[in-house]
Amino acid sequence: MAKQSGLGWTVLSVDDSSGTIRDIRNDVTNLDWSLPVATQDITGIDKYAMERLALLRDFTVTLSGVFNVASNASHDVFKDINAAASPAREFNLTIGGKSLGITPAFTLLFTGYDVSRGNDGALTWNAPGVLASGDIPAWT
Q: In the CATH hierarchy, which top-level class contains the domain 11-139?
């Protein structure tokens, strides 16, 4: 099947502070990612439309999920992000046999691990990450 839904993810993993990659698909309730390309405006005053050059590539992700303190689950992966000397973590995303990454994992710098308790009692977390490795992520 060529078209793919957001159901039945093959792999979504992040390594913990010891460097062990952990499958956290079951805890992640939603994620957003982007592969932006920086641009430079090079439009001369003789033009009536924009001219641009493509510059550096990037990758950003925001993972959100259900708080889970089970061994090797999402809390174990992110609990020391704010205290770690280097919150850089290996990240792997595979959907329908297509991986987004370098080998296929690549390194992200997670910039926070925010836990929230809603007024309905829900305990959730949010972990934003940005590219740290300098390698250009691409789909396989």
A: mainly beta
